[in-house]
Amino acid sequence: MLPSHKSGLKRSISLESTTGIALRTFCISLVALVALCFLVPAPAAHASSGGSLQLGTITGNTLMVACGGGDWLPGMVCHSATVAGCPNVDNINFMYGYVAPTGVPKGVITYFDGGDGTSAVKEEPELEMLTYYASQGYGVVEIGWSTAWEHTTNANIQNAACRPATFLNFVYENIYLPITTGQNGNAKAGMCAQGFSAGSAAVAYSLAYYGAGTYLDNVELISGPVLSDLNQGCEQSPPSVTVCPSGQYGCQLGTDAPWTLAPTYLGNDVNYINAWTNSSTCTTGSNSSWLAQSIVDQGAGAAPTFNYPATAMSGWLCRNVNNQLPNCSGSNYNYNLCPNNSSSQGQIFYANITNDNSPPFYNVYSVDGCNGPEGVPQGTVAAILVSQNGQQVPIGGQSAVEQDMAGGTTLTAQCFHGLHQQR
Questions:
Q1: Which end of the chain has a smaller Cβ tally under 10 Å, C or N?
Q2: How many Cβ atoms are within 10 Å of 410's Cβ, its own excluded?
């Protein structure tokens, strides 16, 4: 759910080392502070999310100084705030940063990181992606939670997902909508989101239960969603899952074949689940309570929707790992050299999206040669070819995600509010 190593860089950028969500504050004049500031109206209370579960509200939205440290894009202005009022969920503090688009705004992209989300961006390639989006004329939003967003006193991750869903809705109402109107506004600007690992689960929960499909124009889900079925994830010997079986709608494998993996949580991922759910029973017991807090809860809890007619979607799943071990079972499992549950858990979610309820521009891509089980950026995508030295070769994972979101030489940007978005 959150790699324990730093992935290799595809291209060099100058950034400070990661410092969590702590700020290196510095003195700044009032004039400079006002110049950095963007005005955020007080959010209205939400009676309903448009989904089966209710949103909370954002309170105490306090402007801080420019963000510091390697978690944040240069030029970002950071704010501290609190998510309050989520049903059955404790209030949680967080910090978010925003860098406004330059020129005519193309849209706003909100990023959710993996693991517990307490780092705004943990992996350098993901930060490079956000840098690319900003260079293409998009506003970029990052968030770092004070504690794990998945953890609540009532031990229900589905309820806890109210937190990122509430923040995503806040971004839509208070950052995105203002750039679509006025003299310099762009009515076709996109409202988009990207999530990595557990961050992709935050986006998927927002779509399935909290109404985000009514306003998101595009989502990029990298290595996940990893919380699609906690019941299967915590079983010791669940049935293996075939990822992108023949004929599955939206799957783009190129020359790759479908692959089969168990959706079981392994290694430190088990510790994450136990900590977030105040439990010690993941892998030692499974029951309907695990299923009821999953993204795909199969009727065990709240009613999910998998119909997102206004939201383009791409999933990116690691099919294999660079230098993968020939045997990854049992005690042979090595996190860096073996696949994990991210692709099989992701498949459980994507299997619910069919031709009948398909979003526009919906694709699930296999990624080969990942740097670790979730290292999509360093892998290659067999279904998308680019010209290199007179030959057609698979595009790199990082370039594929970047261009699918914001456009480039090979792929067209999906983050826009235009012909394929009918609200």
A1: C
A2: 15
Per-residue pLDDT tens over the stretch 54-91: 999 999 999 888 897 889 999 999 999 999 999 999 99
Query: Which band of pLDDT confidence, cut at 50, 70 and 90, is reported for residue 341?
Result: very high
Q: What is the DSSP letter of 326?
A: S
List, edge to edge, every strand of the sheet that includes 312-318: 57-66, 77-84, 92-99, 138-145, 107-112, 190-196, 218-222, 312-318, 362-367, 251-252
Residues of the chain with pLDDT > 90, as a percent, come to: 74
Could you give all domains of the chain from N- to C-terminal order, each with its CATH number?
30-406 (3.40.50)
Which residue bears the tokens 């977030």?
276
Contact in structure between 296 and 350 (CB atoms under 8 Å): no
pLDDT for residue 4: 40
Query: Quick one: pLDDT at residue 68?
Result: 79
Q: Angle formed by the axes of helices 124-135 and 397-406, to 10°? A: 30
Task: Check if the beta carbon of residue 378 is closer than 8 Å to that of residue 371.
Answer: yes
Cβ–Cβ under 8 Å, residues 52 and 304? yes
Rg (CA), the chain: 20
Whether 221 contacts 315, CB under 8 Å: yes
User: Is 396 exposed, middle or buried (CB count within 10 Å of its CB: 0-12, 13-18, 19+)?
Assistant: buried
* Helix-then-strand count for the chain, H and E: 11, 14
What mean pLDDT is predicted for residues 215-242? 95
Note the pTM of the prediction, 2 decimals.
0.89
Task: Provide the 8-state DSSP code for 370.
Answer: B
Strand 380-388 versus strand 391-396 pairing type: antiparallel
206 pairs with which residues across the strands?
Answer: none
- Residue 299 structure tokens: 């009727």
| Among candidate residues 378, 300, 376, 313, the one with its CA nearest the CA of residue 349 | 313
